Structure formats: structure tokens, C-alpha cells
């Protein structure tokens, strides 16, 4: 996500919680076989320090299928989601993250299940327990409400279903996917998605990945089927419906490009959308091959203040493409960088968001400097001057608090950590660290500890003592190579 258009401490207890979460995500504690075979409820959440009830325990999702019978803007419609999963424990019941839609039916393996709503949790008790290791299928029928939206007071602003004049787009970050479909809604939990969406004949549906089928039905409606092709985190799911023009082209090496543009915005946005091949070439020189099968820009006909790196189809608000070239390219490069860093290499917990947003801001500013924008070094010096204040107000880069998760520290403040690392190890070693990171963790999730460990391995010496103060300390360390840089005093009250 880019915050460029709308430039709007953690305690040791929270750090301990993060360590607990990491342990929970990496594997169970050894217990007796009899205990693991006894059916028990799956955990209602993964215990993430930011959002403890996001995600669910006891199973792994293998595939989602979304069936939406979309009718008209801001109009509820019939929907169902099929979740194919595997039990990682013997389950007496389990949870799905699901918020606000009218529930109609729930079955597990074709049999009606008992359900209970508990806030944003849908608690499902199957007709019979699910043995550990078993595959099972959950089908949830509901009425979807495309006006559902929530608000945050950081850079995210509104998220969930985002209406447009003739349809909708999705903004599920950070945890708004549960307003759209029942899911295991945490960035560490990824699965392939099939989208089957029926629309009126004068509307087009688009989603992550590849268009598999378009069928005109006898009633005049059209059914669109998309395959995400690769597993996808719920916060990166995109489904847009509207009066769109689909523009296909080729990127470097023949990479399929698909822009999705409201009809009236095709000509006004063309100049900057046509820069995508150049952006891809530049980023591939820095980070290696693009990690997915296709890419494109979805132009949002909305008043959204921020873009979003929805996988293979970045959502970019129209205002970002109707201003100056420098501003447009900063946002376009930011979201494209996320395809490597944030989408392909996912985050293990929300405390690791700095890895995703810091990298996107780092390469965005680097590219901008080389293409007519402001000085990268000057931007980093400004960030350095404000870093103690941001630590005080928003938490250190890898120690956010939930209300401040998407504040300035996770962007320029986290890019500054990467800038400091490059100054410390040198440009050549830094480039090797970055290439190793996107290669080793391609298609996986990774943590802050993983980044420190890999950077140390590539550099040939332990960087823990250098990186941890930058990422967790209450005070900003000296900037390597810039002894004249000074941090401004913190203003309180």
C-alpha cells in the first residue's frame, strides 16, 4: 500500500506476544498422541499482537471458491464461499473469520452444521468431529452487502467493500476480507482462490489472476470465472465490478499485462499506465524476475486516498494517475514493488509490516530520484531527523501498536532502516541480500527474524547487533556514513 497521496512503544509484553505468535505459526508443542487424537475446538485466532482473533487454528485452507451473484451498486446479493481445508488437529469445532453478512446456511462435508456468531468469528460445529489430517469442505451461504466498510485512523482510512459509481472494488487490507467472504483472515495464511461472479450484461467482473471463462447465460447475465493461479493472502484479494475497458499488452519477456480501467478514464490515465513495462524492467534489475504470471493496474473510480498491492492487479485510485508524472510513478512503482515484497514474500505477523512497506517505499524513492523526483538521500535525512518522534508516537519499525500500524514509521521510517543497512554493508552486499530475500522466500511468508538472519548470512557476519536497535530500540542509532545527521528532540504532550 502506498501512502504518498495522503501523507497522513511497543512494550516488552507485546514483543513477548510476538515471539509467542511466531512459535504458534511455526509449529505445535509436542504433546501425547492420545491428546492430539481427542477432538477439541480450533483456536479462535492466531494471537497476532495487532489482531489476536484474526486467523484461526486447527486447520489449513487449501482452496477458496467464491460464488457471487452481483446485482447492482450498493445492493445486497446472494453469495456463497466454499472452503476446502485440512485439519491440523482433531476438531470438535472451528472458527472462520466472518463479519456482518446475513448468514443463510453452513454445511461441513455436505451435512448441516451448527453455527454461532461471536463478533467477527463464525463458530462452526460439524455434525461429527473431524479427525486430524482429514480433508474437509465447508460451504457457507450468505447475503453479501457491498456497502460494508470500516474505518481506521491511520493511512488505511476506509476498507472492505469500496463502492464506485457503477460497481465496486475491494480494499481488504488489513483485515477486511472477512467482510467479503468467510476466511482464515491473516497474512500468514494463504490459499488459491477461484472467483465465480455473475453480473448484468453491461458490467465486467475482474479478479486476481487469470480469466478462465466468460459465459453468457440465457437470462442475459454473464458469469465470469477467474483463477488466482498462486496462493494469495486474504488481504490481497481483489474483485472489481463495473463498466470497464480491459487493456491487454506485453511486458518484459512477454509478461502478460492487463489494465482494468473505467471507460471514461482510459484516455486520461494511459500516459502513466503505459510506463509499467519500464517499471518492471527497473525492478527486475534490482530484485530479479517478476514472481507472478501476469500483472496489471486496476484504476479505482473512487475517492480512496491510498493504493493497494492486490496480487497481480494493483488497485490505484484515479487521482494518483491524473496528476504529475513523478507522483504517479511513485505510487505505481510502490505497488509494483509489493508484488515481490509483501505479495510473493509475505509477512509472518503484522509486526513484520515494516519489511513489506519499508521495501516498497525504499524502491519507490530510489526509482523516483532517478526519474525526476526528489533526492533519495534528502528524504532519508528528513526521516532520520524525525525518527525518534515517530518511535515515540507510532512505535519502532518492528514494534507497531495496532492503532498506529499504518503510520509514517512503517513507510519512510522503515525505508530508513534499509537505507542504514545499505550504508553499513555497502551497495553490492545489500543488493545480494535483497536478491537472496526475494529468492529464498518466494511464495512463502517470512518474519523480521528471518530477514536479520538472512542478511547476516549474506553479509558474512552477524548483523543482529546492528539491525535490532534500528528495528526495536527507543532511540534512533547513528547513521553509518553520515556522522553529521542529527535526530530532532522528541516533543511530548
UniProtKB/TrEMBL annotation:
<dbReference type="InterPro" id="IPR045357">
    <property type="entry name" value="Aminopeptidase_N-like_N"/>
</dbReference>
<keyword id="KW-0862">Zinc</keyword>
<keyword id="KW-0645">Protease</keyword>
<dbReference type="InterPro" id="IPR050344">
    <property type="entry name" value="Peptidase_M1_aminopeptidases"/>
</dbReference>
<feature type="domain" description="Aminopeptidase N-like N-terminal">
    <location>
        <begin position="62"/>
        <end position="234"/>
    </location>
</feature>
<dbReference type="Pfam" id="PF17900">
    <property type="entry name" value="Peptidase_M1_N"/>
</dbReference>
<protein>
    <recommendedName>
        <fullName>Aminopeptidase N</fullName>
        <ecNumber>3.4.11.2</ecNumber>
    </recommendedName>
</protein>
<dbReference type="InterPro" id="IPR027268">
    <property type="entry name" value="Peptidase_M4/M1_CTD_sf"/>
</dbReference>
<keyword id="KW-0031">Aminopeptidase</keyword>
<dbReference type="InterPro" id="IPR042097">
    <property type="entry name" value="Aminopeptidase_N-like_N_sf"/>
</dbReference>
<comment type="similarity">
    <text>Belongs to the peptidase M1 family.</text>
</comment>
<keyword id="KW-0732">Signal</keyword>
<feature type="signal peptide">
    <location>
        <begin position="1"/>
        <end position="26"/>
    </location>
</feature>
<keyword id="KW-0482">Metalloprotease</keyword>
<keyword id="KW-0479">Metal-binding</keyword>
<feature type="domain" description="Peptidase M1 membrane alanine aminopeptidase">
    <location>
        <begin position="276"/>
        <end position="470"/>
    </location>
</feature>
<dbReference type="Pfam" id="PF01433">
    <property type="entry name" value="Peptidase_M1"/>
</dbReference>
<keyword id="KW-0378">Hydrolase</keyword>
<dbReference type="InterPro" id="IPR014782">
    <property type="entry name" value="Peptidase_M1_dom"/>
</dbReference>
<dbReference type="InterPro" id="IPR001930">
    <property type="entry name" value="Peptidase_M1"/>
</dbReference>
Amino acid at each position: 500500500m502506498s501512502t504518498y497521496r495522503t501523507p497522513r512503544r511497543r512494550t516488552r509484553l507485546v514483543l513477548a506476544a510476538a515471539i509467542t505468535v511466531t512459535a504458534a505459526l511455526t509449529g505445535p508443542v509436542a504433546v501425547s498422541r492420545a491428546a492430539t487424537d481427542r477432538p477439541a475446538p480450533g483456536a479462535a485466532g492466531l494471537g497476532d499482537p495487532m489482531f489476536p482473533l484474526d486467523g484461526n487454528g486447527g486447520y489449513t485452507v487449501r482452496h477458496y471458491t467464491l460464488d457471487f451473484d452481483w446485482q447492482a451498486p450498493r445492493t445486497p446479493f446472494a453469495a456463497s464461499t466454499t472452503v476446502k481445508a485440512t485439519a491440523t488437529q482433531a476438531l470438535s469445532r472451528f472458527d472462520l473469520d466472518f463479519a456482518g453478512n446475513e448468514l443463510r446456511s453452513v454445511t461441513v462435508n455436505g451435512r448441516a452444521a451448527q453455527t454461532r456468531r461471536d463478533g467477527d468469528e463464525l463458530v462452526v460445529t460439524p455434525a461429527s468431529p473431524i479427525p486430524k489430517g482429514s480433508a474437509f469442505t465447508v460451504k457457507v451461504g450468505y447475503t453479501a452487502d457491498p456497502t460494508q466498510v470500516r474505518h481506521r485512523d491511520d493511512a488505511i482510512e476506509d476498507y472492505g467493500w469500496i463502492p464506485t459509481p457503477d460497481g465496486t472494488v475491494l480494499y481488504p487490507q488489513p483485515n477486511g476480507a472477512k467482510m467479503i467472504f468467510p476466511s482464515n483472515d491473516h497474512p500468514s495464511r494463504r490459499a488459491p482462490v477461484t472467483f465465480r461472479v455473475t453480473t448484468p450484461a453491461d458490467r465486467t467482473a475482474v479478479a486476481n489472476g487469470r480469466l478462465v471463462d466468460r459465459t453468457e447465460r440465457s437470462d442475459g447475465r454473464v458469469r465470469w470465472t477467474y483463477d488466482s493461479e498462486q496462493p494469495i493472502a486474504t488481504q490481497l484479494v481483489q474483485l472489481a465490478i463495473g463498466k470497464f475497458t480491459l487493456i491487454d499488452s506485453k511486458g518484459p519477456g512477454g509478461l502478460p499485462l492487463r489494465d482494468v480501467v473505467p471507460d471514461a478514464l482510459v484516455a486520461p490515465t494511459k500516459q502513466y499506465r503505459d510506463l509499467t513495462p519500464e517499471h518492471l524492467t527497473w525492478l527486475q534489475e534490482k530484485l530479479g524476475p517478476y514472481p507472478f504470471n501476469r500483472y496489471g493496474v486496476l484504476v479505482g473510480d473512487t475517492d480512496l486516498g491510498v493504493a493497494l498491492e492486490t496480487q497481480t492487479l494493483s488497485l490505484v485510485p484515479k487521482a494518483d494517475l491524473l496528476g504529475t508524472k513523478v507522483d504517479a510513478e511513485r505510487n505505481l512503482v510502490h505497488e509494483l514493488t509489493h508484488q515481490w515484497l509483501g505479495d510473493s514474500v509475505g509477512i509472518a505477523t503484522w509486526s513484520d509490516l515494516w519489511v513489506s512497506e519499508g521495501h516498497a517505499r525504499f524502491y519507490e524513492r530510489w526509482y523516483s530520484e532517478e526519474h525526476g523526483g526528489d533526492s533519495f538521500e534528502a528524504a532519508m535525512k528528513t526521516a532520520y531527523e524525525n525518527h525518534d518522534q515517530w518511535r515515540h508516537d507510532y512505535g519502532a519499525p518492528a514494534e507497531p501498536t495496532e492503532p498506529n500500524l499504518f503510520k509514517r514509521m512503517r513507510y519512510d521510517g522503515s525505508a530508513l532502516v534499509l537505507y542504514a543497512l545499505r550504508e553499513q554493508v555497502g551497495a553490492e552486499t545489500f543488493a545480494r541480500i535483497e536478491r537472496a530475500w526475494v529468492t529464498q522466500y518466494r511464495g512463502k511468508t517470512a518474519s523480521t527474524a528471518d530477514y536479520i538472519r538472512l542478511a547476516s548470512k549474506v553479509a558474512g557476519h552477524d548483523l543482529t547487533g546492528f539491525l535490532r536497535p534500528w528495528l526495536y530500540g527507543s532511540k534512533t542509532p547513528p547513521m553509518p556514513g553520515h556522522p553529521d545527521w542529527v535526530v530532532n528532540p522528541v516533543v511530548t504532550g
